[in-house]
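Q: Got a minute? One more chain.
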Amino acid sequence: MYELNQIVKTKKPHVCGSNEWKIIRMGADLKLECQGCKRVIMISSFELDKRIKK
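A: Always. Here it is, folded:
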């Protein structure tokens, strides 16, 4: 599944242009940090499954 500090790539890029996110917290929800602008978001693992590249 997912691991702490793993880099995941999304299908659509973030506003800053980067599509790489680092997992910085795990649990029921995941906390992700954009590798381009360092923005932090919380997202459910179900939602992340839909957004990442397979």
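A: The chain has a mean pLDDT of 95.
Q: Perfect, thanks.
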